[in-house]
Sequence to fold (131 residues):
Amino acid sequence: MTTYLIGTDSVETSERLAAYIEARADEDDTVYAVNSLRGGDRTPEEDVRAGRDALDVFGDAAVEVDGHQLVRGNSPQEDLMQFAADNDVDELVVGIRKRSPTGKLVFGSTAQDLLLSAELPVVCVPLASSD
Fold:
């Protein structure tokens, strides 16, 4: 049995990561999805709604996904790493995008921070380009 943690920030990201986890996870695996927001004055209500919408995507997934929206005043990296430690996660799943017109792959700051600091496997799923 494997425990997966999906980090998501949008409906589009969730749709791509849901497709990945449906192909990867077995029915006896545990799958969590987390949307992390800073909280306080830094988090507008529209971001909270967008985060909930991102988590709602997993309600239609072929595998059971336990969704959590975290608004703790932490960075997404901090929230994901703490959640992973608290829940004995085996593998972290995040999305990455190509960001430059020349096609150079540049990781978003959360994905890069996770890749550099995580002590567990991090799977990076390619997302649509964002120029």
Summary: The two ends are 39 Å apart (CA to CA). The first strand starts at residue 3 and ends at 7. The chain is about 35% helix and 25% strand.
